[in-house]
Amino acid sequence: MDSRTEQSSDPPSNVPAPKGNQHRTQMLSLLEHMFYQLDLVATFKMEPETLRCFLSSVQEHYQENPFHNFHHGFSVAQMLYCVISQCQLQERLLPSDTLAMMVAALCHDLDHPGLSNSYQVNAQTDLAKRYNYNSPLENHHWAVTLRILSQEKSNLLVNVAPEQLPHIQQEIMELILATDMVHHGKILQSLQHIETLSFSNREHVTALKKTLIKLCDISNEARPADQAEVWADSLMEEYFLQSDREKAEGLPVTPYMDRDRVRKADAQSSFITFLLLPLCEALCQHLPQLSDSLLQPLRAAKLRYQQQMDKEMGQAERQDM
């Protein structure tokens, strides 16, 4: 096993997360290696240069936002790769399932403008109108993905059997659309209603795949605290920029983005408690291998933020005395 394999297949909570322009080459190299390690290149007869062109094109189509940037797309794909490898899911899922998940994870925020669906709808942007105010960002991310896959030089699916191609494209689209948080509750319930996961049951597999991409999308708090803090700060920065713009334009201010009201420790504690933990706990019922690498770090992160909240409250009380 070479150093790239060791780096990209560590337990999810311990995976290094490079950031910055100087690391883009490293991220592209790691992504390429993941596709080889999952046997996707051989199975789908991908030309090495086509894979490299696809990955480079994906990187070029991410905007330089504080949070929703290429590094985020890389990190979601990285986390998914770690989960697949740790649970050996590539041996239990169809190869097309693994391919669709990896492409969707990497591309799920392509050309993200740094402004949420709520902003798009309230501002009645061209993007919102184009998709009839229905998940405009996610529909756009898929449209850009399809555009990249439609170019000969970056078409990963060029050698896929014609009868299989529409199915894989549909899978990628549905997984990208599943990352819209409006679907969170429905996807969680779908997995919770499964008593015993069967990989021969396509409804079960669909629920699992949507849960996996959703969890990987929002899983930064399962990473080591120093990495999680950087991600949380980047997200807060992007949120606050949006709320500033909403105020300047006279639009409704998204409550959890308001820099005058939101406190990071409180916001992250609530996010972990009400969204992340229930999703991770439901997943670990079927994939208990993830308890140590995902569930326990999330519980530790929740405790860390609660302690931070208690400390801030104590400081505020002393100032009021």
Automatic annotation (TrEMBL):
Q: In which pathway does it act?
A: Purine metabolism; 3',5'-cyclic GMP degradation; GMP from 3',5'-cyclic GMP: step 1/1
User: InterPro entries in the record, alphabetically?
Assistant: HD/PDEase_dom, PDEase, PDEase_catalytic_dom, PDEase_catalytic_dom_sf, PDEase_CS
- Which residues does UniProt mark as catalytic? H68 (proton donor)
Q: Please list which residues make up the signal peptide.
A: none
User: What are the residue boundaries of the PDEase domain, all occurrences included?
Assistant: 1-312
- Renumbered to this chain, region (Disordered) spans 1-22
The reply on keyword DNA damage is no
Which top EC class applies here? hydrolase
Where, by residue number, does Zn(2+) 2 bind? Answer: D109
Q: Is Cytoplasm among this UniProt entry's keywords?
A: no
Q: Which GO terms describe its biological process?
A: signal transduction
Question: What residues does Zn(2+) 1 bind to?
Answer: H72, H108, D109, D217
Q: Which GO terms describe its molecular function?
A: 3',5'-cyclic-GMP phosphodiesterase activity; metal ion binding
State the SUPFAM superfamilies in the record: HD-domain/PDEase-like (SSF109604)
Q: Which reaction does it catalyse?
A: 3',5'-cyclic GMP + H2O = GMP + H(+)
User: Which UniProt keywords are present, listed alphabetically?
Assistant: cGMP, Hydrolase, Metal-binding
The membrane-spanning stretches of this chain are none
**Quick one: which residues bind AMP?**
H68, N69, F70, H71, H72, D109, D217, Q268
Q: Which family does it belong to?
A: Belongs to the cyclic nucleotide phosphodiesterase family. PDE9 subfamily.
Q: What role does it play?
A: Specifically hydrolyzes the second messenger cGMP, which is a key regulator of many important physiological processes. Highly specific: compared to other members of the cyclic nucleotide phosphodiesterase family, has the highest affinity and selectivity for cGMP. Specifically regulates natriuretic-peptide-dependent cGMP signaling in heart, acting as a regulator of cardiac hypertrophy in myocytes and muscle. Does not regulate nitric oxide-dependent cGMP in heart.
Annotated protein name in UniProt: High affinity cGMP-specific 3',5'-cyclic phosphodiesterase 9A
